[in-house]
Amino acid sequence: MRAWGPLEWLLRKLPQTKEPIYVVGSLSSEERCTAVPSIAARHSPERVRLLKIVDPPSRYSSKIKDKTERNYGTLCNLLGDVLEAPAERFLFDNDEFIASAFDFLDSCTSPCSLWLDVTCLPKRFFFLLVKLALRDPRIRNLLVTYAQPAPGRYTDEHLAEDPGDAQPLPGFGLVESDPDELIIAVGFESLGLPQLLGEYRDKRRLVLVPFPPGQPYSRRIWQTIMNIGHPGDANLKRVPALDVFEALDIIKEDTSYDIALGKPPALAPYGPKPISLAMCLYAVKFGSPVFYTQPRVYHPDYTVGVGSSWAYSLKRNGREVWL
After folding, report:
1. Is the pTM of this model over 0.90?
2. Among residues of the chain, what percentage have pLDDT more than 70?
3. Do residues 322 and 197 make contact, with C-beta atoms less than 8 angstroms apart?
4. Is the sign of the CA dihedral 118, 122, 124, 125 positive or negative?
5. Which of 206, 50, 211 has its CA nearest to residue 117?
6. For the segment 76-90, what is each residue's pLDDT rounded down to a tens digit?
7. Is the backbone peptide bond immediately before 111 cis, with ω within 30 degrees of 0?
8. pLDDT, tens digit, for every residue of 174-213?
9. Architecture of domain 165-293 in CATH?
10. Dihedral sign for Cα atoms in the order 90, 94, 100, 102
11. Domains of the chain: which residue ranges?
12. N or C: which end of the chain has fewer CB within 10 A?
């Protein structure tokens, strides 16, 4: 059974376990980074580890620092000594990050339950963490969580700026067979997508459009599609913005021919986190390479406020339940 829904509702529906609960997420300037840790505080977690990503210096650095420290103070009052917030360099190399991920998993009591909160974790972080957590037998129960902002509270300005080159995410590099298709999930920003599309200009393309985005989100998403120069032969497909498992099934259905040939498509997760999680699970199962252009600057008011918190059950009692 693929179980997902509002976090607190899902916790009441899932069988109770005795394993200690660990929470991993990110401490950021967005208030919604506090949502899942605040809920976890009511469930006596063993440890809450929030990576504080240290961005390169920018015109926003002072405001980001102030807002991040405010969120840290809020969570300290709730969690006390259970909370850890180690600072991580944003652009450290892949080998260093992979070692950091393994060190954390090695520090967990075995067996345990893990809540992996992807709300503010960069994709280059959470893709690898999902992959490792699925394969680690010490993690008996795995929930991936995601908190929305307050309705309509994304900044009207650019969410992110100064993207790097398109590169494979750690743990999701190139495969032996050159992919025949590129699957792109679009969001509010095109970032380095034009570069990636240029490299895959001779390949089939599937563009995943989150639905229902709601206003004013749909206008921004269609603007992204226009900015990347949507080719007429590309296939556009609406996918649910929150239902990870349905989005996964849509991708699997569209790519069944490629998988039968042993040539998994390349993935580009530029859309909402739940759709990115669906693409992560697809890549874990079929071995797809995953490309992203990591921004170096994020807007301090990326989002405002806290909306609903969602959870997706991927492992229960040591068994994967998302396949």
Report:
1. yes
2. 91
3. no
4. negative
5. 50
6. 999 999 998 876 665
7. yes
8. 777 788 899 999 887 777 788 888 888 788 888 898 886 5
9. 3-Layer(aba) Sandwich (3.40)
10. positive
11. 4-153+301-320, 165-293
12. N
